[in-house]
Specification:
four-stranded mixed β-sheet, 15 helices, binds zinc ion
């Protein structure tokens, strides 16, 4: 373990521009692993714990990405002529081309000599975030070396591949070693566009290293969450729940809605550790049954969960009839359900998907299963875009139902605040308000209708009375108006 005190000193230097005088956190010895970030006082849910700025940041530039974004300000540029005219092989906008940051990047890459400086190459653009480590100050570089790095066999591949894109790529061992180390730290602690960390429904389009955040340990039910400030790309970390003084502040490296086994595999393979948090030790995942499947015995309506977690291929147990199944057997059920639901998710009609989730899928997969949750999240995302083939009532009832379903699962898991929860609660609130307004309008219409009906009834009554009055008046008048006997007749 790297000494928490040295890490703190380096972090203090990094955070100097915005560190509080009386910070709510300190780096200390963790019960989870090595070192971690601890609360120095009681924190209320929603309170800002710290702000972190990226020590390294660059375009993610994955192979499938469009590459016409400025490598300094990240703004999208017209897709013709966006490459630096100095021949460094980096895309840059005319404003940033004059900035100090680009001057440094430009000098470095020009000296390395890109093979095709006028063609945007994702390998070169992606490497920039890593290569920027070379020009950091010694303290900043020490901070990178202070962070956890998974130095597995693959961590040298990126730099090795990038070297092939330049004529004079550095051969100095020290420089290559800085880059390889940075790649390993980024892979362990960094953010990457298609992030393996939970995006929690947040878009993050860069490759970046936030050093204080990188010191935080993982928990599958994190007690903090983060957002990004658009202008600065700074990260704001807040308390997801109330946190007591001395408690460790945790984040999550995985998606919130994946089952124990998938999370276990991911953390083991990508992050190199086994999580032993309460959720991971509980086969029902706190009663949320996110990995739950139906019993294979068709006469039994029980749910089946992995016997113990922390194994790649556990046996599964039915909670009702106690029948055991092998991992392979249960994975068949899961794969079948995933295939069926994902096929509907990828189809065009949202109405069909909603109908399937509401009426059909429950017959072969419990609605608590993560595949169903993911499908509901994608329905909500599509509804938010508002270009769907559904009528207003279906949109409204689906939004209400799915937002409630998902927040209920979050409650069961004991998940506090998060960007996703805020979004769901906002949608729910809006929908409930809309419904209440509609009901009020309907009640008002009914009241008006009743009033009209009453008036009509009164009018009828009045008419009837008038008619009677008319009739009797007519009866009396008959006599009075009877023509007097014609005198002529009398005379006759
Ligand atoms: Zn720019
Ligand atoms: Zn340049
Ligand atoms: Zn866990
Ligand atoms: Zn059973």
């Amino acid at each position: 373990m790297i000494c928490p005190k040295r890490t703190s000193e380096l972090l203090d230097l990094h955070l100097a521009p915005f560190k509080d005088k009386d910070p709510a956190w300190e780096v200390g010895v963790s019960k989870i692993a090595g070192r971690g970030v601890m609360a120095t006082r009681n924190l209320k849910r929603g309170e800002i714990i710290f702000q972190d700025s990226p020590l390294l940041i660059g375009l993610a530039a994955h192979e499938e990405d469009t590459l016409n974004a400025c490598s300094v300000c990240f703004k999208m540029l017209p897709d013709t002529r966006f490459m630096c005219r100095q021949g460094c092989g980096l895309p840059v906008c005319s404003l940033c081309a004059k900035k100090k940051q680009h001057k440094t990047d430009c000098d470095m890459f020009k000296a390395w000599g890109s093979n095709e400086p006028d063609v945007a190459n994702s390998v070169i653009i992606r490497l920039l975030c890593v290569a920027r480590a070379i020009n950091l100050s010694k303290d900043q570089r020490d901070l990178i070396y202070c962070l956890q790095a998974n130095l597995d066999n693959n961590h040298r591949t990126e730099v090795r591949n990038a070297a092939k894109c330049f004529k004079n790529f550095p051969t100095d061992k020290k420089i290559v070693e800085i880059m390889n180390r940075t790649v390993a730290v980024l892979r362990t602690n960094g953010f990457d566009k298609t992030t393996d960390r939970t995006t929690d429904n947040q878009e993050f389009n860069y490759r970046a290293l936030y050093p204080l955040f990188a010191v935080m340990n993982h928990d599958c039910i994190p007690n903090s969450y983060y957002t990004f400030e658009e202008k600065t790309n700074n990260m704001i970390v807040r308390a997801a729940v109330d946190i007591a003084e001395g408690e460790e502040i945790t984040t999550t490296y995985t998606k919130l809605f994946t089952g124990n086994i998938a999370r276990h595999l991911f953390l083991k393979m990508k992050k190199g550790f086994t999580c032993k948090c309460p959720r991971c030790l509980d086969p029902t995942e706190k009663g949320s049954f996110i990995s739950g499947l139906y019993c294979r015995d068709t006469n039994c309506s029980g749910l089946v969960v992995p016997e113990i977690t922390g194994l790649p291929h556990p046996n599964w147990n039915c909670l009702v009839c106690k029948q055991k199944s092998t991992h392979a057997q249960m994975m068949k059920s899961q794969d079948f359900a995933s295939g069926a639901i994902n096929a509907k998710v990828n189809s065009n009609s949202l109405r069909t998907l909603v109908h399937y989730l509401n009426e059909k899928s429950d017959s072969f997969i419990p609605s608590s299963n993560y595949v169903v949750i993911d499908a509901k999240l994608s329905v909500l995302a599509r509804l938010a875009q508002g270009r769907e083939d559904c009528n207003e009532e279906l949109v409204s009832s689906t939004r209400l139902r799915y937002c409630r379903d998902i927040t209920q699962i979050m409650d069961k898991l004991g998940l506090g605040d998060s960007v996703l929860r805020t979004q769901l609660e906002q949608q729910l609130h809006k929908e409930e308000e809309r419904r209440a307004k509609k009901q009020k309008e309907l009640a008002e219409k009914q009241r008006q209708l009743a009033e009209l009906e009453q008036k009509a009834a009164e009018a009828d009554k009045l008419l009837a009375t008038l008619a009677v009055a008319d009739e009797s008046a007519a009866g009396a008048g008959d006599g009075a108006a009877a023509p007097p006997p014609a005198p002529a007749a009398e005379q006759a």
